[in-house]
């Protein structure tokens, strides 16, 4: 089981602002890592944009699960993991991170912050510790009062979009994705079948 | 252009001995006049636009000039480039076999190429198959023995053999991490343990502890558990279960489990062995995985049951059937299909005495289970 990224965002109106993020792309092929990272940022921002305040959801996309928690005060956290990673641990982690973040970073800095300006350094440590959920969170803590019936599950990214909106369009218009990442997305979409060379 | 790319690749390898990975760079169009071969942080990259030209070129070159090469290095370089792009092209691997047999190509270099190929194509069947052929060649070299006799403890592997084994374990481990449930990687691992390590007990025990970390992180990797099953079976069939431990157990109705293959070895205290506490430890480890993941990994349950039941010992220790409660919990989590196979044997597993811990912890967990369970 793997945890690929952990990010803290602010759900502004209308734009979502990325405040801080940590990534673990070591399991991806070397030359794909920067694109993968950009896509994770893109996805995290998109999900927070399309989620209402005060909700928790899990969005499934192929073999990844993106867990998102948007608090009522617009602070949001996204954890991107694989299918095996226990979702309860992911949500406990998000809760913990957002709590810690709001204590350390002043509320006034949230709407205008960016990873360069925000001073919160614990994210990388959390990401690496929580790669093994059993070490990070022994059973007793994991059974926190988390009402799982209230977690919304989306089966694809597409279900977050509005009618008529296409993911391809959002990708090509995105400012977060570089040209190489956009090209990578296009070729990946075109080749649904297994091709030995690519 | 294609010819110069092949030259670029060859010279890059020659200049950089530490290349440890390859990859394809998504690059739809050639930029300026630059070579498509890129080296970054010891990783060799090929820009995708050139593959269209490069691959047919090396392919044709290989087939047309197979019987008469211009120089000694040409087949090595051509096959190298070809296999980095398309590793399942058997003919290329076979050409390399010919080169090894004729002494032109060093087998260790060939293994290194295979390792690089596996960083991008961790499943590639032809790569693994060829790798086994090369290893076979290496251990059959009669001038260098792979095992030596050491006193009365039987044979132990030589340093060179140990190095080979360690390398293979590393390669398998990395490949297993790159693709979920990589059967080709794990079965290669088993093959190496059988044919190169010759089921040496110390190596098997080391393997068992080193794959434990893996097993806890790759919970649904069936192939990984299959490998652990193989390790345990081999260890059990080679050593004696500590008979004193069994005698203390009043429920034991069957005689001591398996015969020692080598009585002297069994008597020697230096000989590593597996015994009942070991097996219980293994059972606890699996149960641990089952509980703490909050989701029940069928593979870990079935794996434990699969290897324990045929040996018959532990079903004798079966005590209270706490199985039904665990099965209930499993069904609640929506794994009903899988548990129909698992519920019977899992009750025997729980009879090992860890059932109380299971029910204490699994039941509260299942109560919190999501909407699917309600």
Automatic annotation (TrEMBL), chain A:
<keyword id="KW-0653">Protein transport</keyword>
<dbReference type="GO" id="GO:0030659">
    <property type="term" value="C:cytoplasmic vesicle membrane"/>
</dbReference>
<keyword id="KW-0813">Transport</keyword>
<keyword id="KW-0333">Golgi apparatus</keyword>
<dbReference type="InterPro" id="IPR045848">
    <property type="entry name" value="R-SNARE_YKT6"/>
</dbReference>
<dbReference type="GO" id="GO:0005886">
    <property type="term" value="C:plasma membrane"/>
</dbReference>
<dbReference type="InterPro" id="IPR011012">
    <property type="entry name" value="Longin-like_dom_sf"/>
</dbReference>
<dbReference type="GO" id="GO:0005484">
    <property type="term" value="F:SNAP receptor activity"/>
</dbReference>
<dbReference type="GO" id="GO:0006903">
    <property type="term" value="P:vesicle targeting"/>
</dbReference>
<keyword id="KW-0636">Prenylation</keyword>
<feature type="domain" description="V-SNARE coiled-coil homology">
    <location>
        <begin position="138"/>
        <end position="198"/>
    </location>
</feature>
<feature type="domain" description="Longin">
    <location>
        <begin position="8"/>
        <end position="131"/>
    </location>
</feature>
<keyword id="KW-0564">Palmitate</keyword>
<dbReference type="Pfam" id="PF13774">
    <property type="entry name" value="Longin"/>
</dbReference>
<comment type="subunit">
    <text>Identified in 2 different SNARE complexes; the first one composed of GOSR1, GOSR2 and STX5 and the second one composed of BET1L, GOSR1 and STX5.</text>
</comment>
<dbReference type="GO" id="GO:0005768">
    <property type="term" value="C:endosome"/>
</dbReference>
<dbReference type="GO" id="GO:0019706">
    <property type="term" value="F:protein-cysteine S-palmitoyltransferase activity"/>
</dbReference>
<dbReference type="GO" id="GO:0006904">
    <property type="term" value="P:vesicle docking involved in exocytosis"/>
</dbReference>
<keyword id="KW-0968">Cytoplasmic vesicle</keyword>
<comment type="similarity">
    <text>Belongs to the synaptobrevin family.</text>
</comment>
<keyword id="KW-0488">Methylation</keyword>
<protein>
    <recommendedName>
        <fullName>Synaptobrevin homolog YKT6</fullName>
    </recommendedName>
</protein>
UniProtKB/TrEMBL annotation, chain B:
<keyword id="KW-0808">Transferase</keyword>
<keyword id="KW-0677">Repeat</keyword>
<dbReference type="InterPro" id="IPR002088">
    <property type="entry name" value="Prenyl_trans_a"/>
</dbReference>
<protein>
    <recommendedName>
        <fullName>Protein prenyltransferase alpha subunit repeat containing 1</fullName>
    </recommendedName>
</protein>
<dbReference type="Pfam" id="PF01239">
    <property type="entry name" value="PPTA"/>
</dbReference>
<keyword id="KW-0637">Prenyltransferase</keyword>
<comment type="similarity">
    <text>Belongs to the protein prenyltransferase subunit alpha family.</text>
</comment>
<dbReference type="GO" id="GO:0008318">
    <property type="term" value="F:protein prenyltransferase activity"/>
</dbReference>
<feature type="compositionally biased region" description="Polar residues">
    <location>
        <begin position="328"/>
        <end position="341"/>
    </location>
</feature>
<feature type="region of interest" description="Disordered">
    <location>
        <begin position="328"/>
        <end position="350"/>
    </location>
</feature>
<dbReference type="GO" id="GO:0005737">
    <property type="term" value="C:cytoplasm"/>
</dbReference>
């Amino acid at each position: 089981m793997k945890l690929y990224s952990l990010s803290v965002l602010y759900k502004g109106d209308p734009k979502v602002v990325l405040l801080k993020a940590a990534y673990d792309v070591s399991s991806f092929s070397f030359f794909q890592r920067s694109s993968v990272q950009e896509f994770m940022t893109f996805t995290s921002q998109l999900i927070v944009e399309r989620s209402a305040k005060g909700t928790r959801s899990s969005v499934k996309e192929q073999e990844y699960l993106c867990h998102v928690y948007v608090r009522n005060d617009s602070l949001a956290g996204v954890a991107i993991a694989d299918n095996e990673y226990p979702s309860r641990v992911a949500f406990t982690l998000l809760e913990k991170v957002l709590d810690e973040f709001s204590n350390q970073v002043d509320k006034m800095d949230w709407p205008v912050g960016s990873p360069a300006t925000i001073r919160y350094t614990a994210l990388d440590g959390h990401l690496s510790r929580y790669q093994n959920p059993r070490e990070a969170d022994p059973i007793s803590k994991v059974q926190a009062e988390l009402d799982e019936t209230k977690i919304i599950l989306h089966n694809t990214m597409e279900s977050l979009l509005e009618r008529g909106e296409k993911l391809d369009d959002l990708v090509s218009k995105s400012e977060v994705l570089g040209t190489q990442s956009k090209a990578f997305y296009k070729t990946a979409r075109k080749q649904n079948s297994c091709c030995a060379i690519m | 252009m294609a010819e110069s790319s092949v030259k670029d690749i060859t010279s890059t390898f020659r200049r950089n001995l530490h290349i440890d990975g390859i990859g394809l760079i998504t690059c739809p169009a050639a930029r300026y006049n630059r070579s498509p071969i890129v080296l970054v942080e010891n990783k060799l990259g090929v820009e995708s636009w050139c593959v269209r030209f490069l691959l047919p070129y090396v392919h044709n070159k290989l087939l047309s000039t197979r019987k008469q090469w211009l120089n000694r290095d040409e087949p090595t370089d051509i096959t190298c480039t070809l296999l980095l792009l398309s590793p399942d092209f058997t003919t290329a691997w076979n050409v390399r076999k010919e080169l090894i047999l004729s002494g032109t190509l060093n087998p260790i270099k060939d293994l290194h190429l295979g390792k690089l190929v596996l960083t991008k194509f961790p499943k590639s069947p032809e790569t693994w198959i060829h790798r086994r052929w090369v290893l076979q060649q290496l251990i059959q070299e009669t001038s260098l023995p792979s095992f030596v006799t050491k006193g009365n403890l039987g044979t132990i592997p030589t340093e060179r053999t140990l190095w080979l084994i360690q390398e293979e374990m590393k390669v398998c481990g990395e490949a297993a991490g790159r693709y979920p449930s990589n059967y080709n990687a794990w079965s290669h691992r088993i093959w190496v343990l059988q044919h190169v390590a010759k089921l040496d007990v110390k190596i098997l025990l080391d393997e068992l502890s080193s794959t434990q970390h893996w097993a806890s992180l790759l919970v649904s990797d069936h192939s990984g558990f299959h490998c652990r099953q193989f390790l345990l079976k081999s260890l059990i069939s080679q050593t004696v279960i500590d008979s004193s431990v069994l005698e203390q157990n009043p429920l034991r109705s069957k005689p001591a489990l398996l015969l020692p293959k080598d009585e002297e070895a069994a008597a020697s205290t230096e000989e590593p062995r597996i015994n009942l506490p070991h097996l219980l430890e293994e059972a606890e480890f699996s149960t641990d995985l089952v509980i703490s993941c909050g989701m029940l990994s069928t593979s870990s349950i079935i794996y434990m049951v699969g290897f324990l039941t045929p040996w018959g010992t532990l079903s004798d220790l079966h005590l209270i059937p706490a199985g039904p409660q665990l099965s209930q919990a499993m069904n609640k989590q929506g794994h009903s299909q899988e548990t129909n196979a698992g519920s019977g044997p899992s009750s025997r597993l729980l009879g090992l005495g860890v059932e109380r811990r299971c029910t204490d912890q699994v039941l509260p967990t299942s109560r919190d289970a999501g909407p699917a369970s309600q």
